[in-house]
Design goal:
The complex is a heterodimer of chains A (about 250) and B (about 230).
Chain A: H1 27-39, H2 43-46, E1 50-58, E2 61-76, E3 79-85, E4 94-101, H3 103-107, H4 111-114, E5 118-119, H5 121-125, H6 136-146, E6 150-155, E7 171-174, H7 186-196, H8 200-206, H9 222-226, E8 228-237
Antiparallel strand pairs in A: 1-2, 1-7, 2-3, 3-4, 4-6, 5-6, 6-7
Chain B: H1 15-27, H2 31-34, E1 38-46, E2 49-64, E3 67-73, E4 82-89, H3 91-95, H4 99-102, E5 106-107, H5 109-114, H6 124-134, E6 138-143, E7 159-162, H7 172-182, H8 186-192, E8 213-222
Antiparallel strand pairs in B: 1-2, 1-7, 2-3, 3-4, 4-6, 5-6, 6-7
The chains are: A alpha+beta (about 250), B alpha+beta (about 230).
InterPro entries (chain B): OBAP-like
Protein name (chain B): Oil body-associated protein 1A-like
Family (chain B): Belongs to the OBAP family.
């Protein structure tokens, strides 16, 4: 049936417009939203404390690379959860979720689980991962922790192939790495840098002393040592029921 | 903001970390997050196993009148775990989807009319204005963290989730638990929502998995070994 590495046929026109199809919000809907906003606490969402801009690659096709915007909540010293968007503008599309765990927690995972995760050391040390508008000095202590983490990132909306709605199965993403397949297109980086008036090069120099995991676990970044990516397929099956459905 | 989550493994957040995060939160732009205006409490089950049911707290933002994107947490608390996401689309948008895609989406009509889906803290009349719209929509949910099997980390692969479609499917005590916590009555709200109509064209036969389960599976696929790729980037 659906598979994250297959392009779905779609009745909707592809490409171009970054906004999903649909009528603009009505005044009535704005008022419902406003009412809800005043009355509800939205506590879990208020825990997001960092915005990071970085790049990710599709594990089943590493020539497809995207700029991502992570909105990050730290649950404890070893665990972070991120809502991932395609831009930091108000109309940003929710394209997936990434989890980040410390080296300690990662090493305790079974190898079959580890292969779904990627390392962050290169991504951070190379300057690809940035916290827009945060001065280097504030960023440093956090990066010292994050550089040693591993991430697991499911992308549910493949906007780079022109999907105007989220189609298909989630795709597993990988992180930039210093070998050929893992390198991010300089054009993509340049566009990002221009947007924020920063220099990834300069950041790389300032991050040279960050300590990476020694060694980086070889189950992570699975493609590097095994030459394999991953795809998620969805197949039709029987349901274990407790009442008639649907 | 330092916290120990009772179930996620790891040390409590140290003071230094928490301080930094407060600082970044005030300097940076959180525009997509600031669009999240609504909290909805609902229930999902694993698309291949109706006996596994989960309470799901949705935090939703509109892309436009016909499309919403929601973050799903396992509770409404500060230490809630981000377990999945849902996209919600109008009936017209749903009808444009390819048939294979339609199966991955579920109808909301029963959830709304039964009173199971609700907006905590919002008075009935306002809530019902939104319910009138939601009753006609379809949703697509993936969960990445199987908290119902007591996983303390998001292990494994994404799960397609479904919503309830008729009486008798949901566990009574799951409902009672929510009713007690929020001081609400699902049965009472069902009466209040009797006037609400579902989708114009009726629930599409391919939605809700077409009545079948959907199981995700992981496949390894070839990718070119790094050495075989000519150096493209300097």
């Amino acid at each position: 049936m659906a598979s994250s590495d297959k392009t779905p046929t779609s009745a909707l026109p592809m490409g171009g417009d970054p906004r999903p199809p649909g009528q603009p919000m009505t005044v009535e809907q704005h008022m419902i939203d406003k009412g809800a906003q005043i009355l509800q606490s939205l506590k879990p969402v208020k825990q997001m404390s960092q915005h990071a801009c970085t790049f990710a690659l599709y594990s089943h096709d590493m020539t497809r690379q995207i700029e991502t915007h992570h909105y990050i909540t730290r649950l404890n010293e070893d665990f972070l959860q991120c809502a991932v968007y395609d831009t930091d503008h108000a109309h940003g599309r929710l394209i997936g979720i990434e989890y980040m765990i410390s080296e300690r927690i990662f090493e305790a995972l079974p190898p079959d689980e580890q292969k779904l995760w990627h390392s962050h050391a290169y991504e951070i040390k190379s300057g690809l991962w940035v916290n827009p508008r945060v001065p280097g000095i504030l960023e440093k202590p956090e990066l010292e922790k994050l550089v040693k983490t591993y991430g697991k990132f499911w992308c549910t909306w493949q906007v780079d192939r022109g999907d105007r709605l989220p189609l298909g199965a989630p795709a597993l993403m990988m992180s930039p790495q210093p070998v050929n397949l893992g390198q991010v297109s300089p054009d993509l980086v340049r566009m990002r840098d221009n947007k924020y008036n920063i220099s990834t090069e300069a950041l790389r120099e300032s991050r040279v002393e960050l300590l990476e995991p020694e060694p980086i676990n070889s189950q992570a970044d699975y493609w590097k040592h095994h030459g394999k990516g991953f795809a998620i397929g969805i197949k039709v099956t029987d349901i274990k029921l407790r009442a008639p459905f649907p | 903001m330092s916290s120990t989550h009772p179930e996620v493994p790891g040390e409590p957040t140290k003071t230094g970390t928490a301080f930094l995060e407060t600082a970044t939160a005030t300097i940076q732009s959180f525009a997509p997050i600031n669009q999240i205006h609504q909290h909805l409490c609902a229930f999902h089950f694993y698309s291949y196993d109706m006996t596994r049911q989960v309470e799901a707290h949705h935090y939703c933002a509109h892309q436009n009148e016909e499309m919403r994107q929601c973050l799903i947490y396992d509770s409404p608390d500060a230490d809630a775990r981000l377990i999945g996401l849902e996209y919600v689309i109008s009936e017209p948008l749903f009808l444009t989807l390819p048939d294979d895609e339609k199966r991955l989406w579920h109808s909301h009509e029963y959830e709304v009319k039964s009173g199971l889906l609700f907006m905590p803290g919002v008075p009935g009349p306002i809530e019902r204005q939104d319910m009138e719209k939601l009753a006609k929509t379809y949703g697509k949910v993936f969960h990445f963290w199987q908290v119902d099997r007591k996983d303390n980390l998001p292990l494994g692969i994404p799960q397609v989730m479904m919503a309830f479609t008729r009486d008798g499917q949901i566990y009574e005590d799951l409902v009672k638990d929510v009713e007690d916590r929020y001081g609400i009555s699902v049965a009472k709200e069902r009466e209040n929502r009797a006037y609400i109509s579902g989708s114009t064209h009726g629930i599409h036969p391919l939605a809700n998995g077409g009545g079948k389960g959907l199981k995700t599976e992981l496949r390894e696929v070839d990718c070119k070994a790094p050495d075989s790729v000519p150096r493209v980037f300097v």
